[in-house]
Specification:
Keywords: Membrane, Transmembrane, Transmembrane helix. The protein is mainly alpha-helical and 94 residues long. Helices cover 87% and strands 0% of the residues. The protein is elongated and about 45 Å long.
Length: 94
């Protein structure tokens, strides 16, 4: 059993319990990433593109929950959003 399938099965089993927790986690991490992107400045195109993707991915995850998509879609959007936010924080903090 891979790590992905293990976490997905736990997420699927306790889906309604994880919804509020992941919304708060993902929104806070997306906000921190946006803060670091804005602290670096938007004088180049790279900052604008990073901010665009940060906001879009965070919004897509929240929209996936509100649209009541399948658990697999919601879980994949959570992973994508968290990974991009962490990448943006690390990239802009250095």
């Amino acid at each position: 059993m891979t790590l992905y399938t293990q976490y997905y099965s736990e997420f699927k089993d306790k889906y309604t319990m994880y919804i509020p927790l992941t919304i708060i986690l993902q929104s806070c991490l997306g906000g921190i990433a946006a803060m670091y992107i804005l602290m670096n400045g938007l004088d180049n195109m790279s900052g604008l593109i990073q901010l665009f993707f940060c906001v879009i991915l965070t919004s897509f995850y929240n929209a996936a929950i509100l649209a009541q998509l399948r658990e697999k879609w919601v879980f994949n959007m959570l992973i994508i959003s968290l990974l991009f936010s962490m990448f943006a924080i690390i990239f802009n903090a250095l």
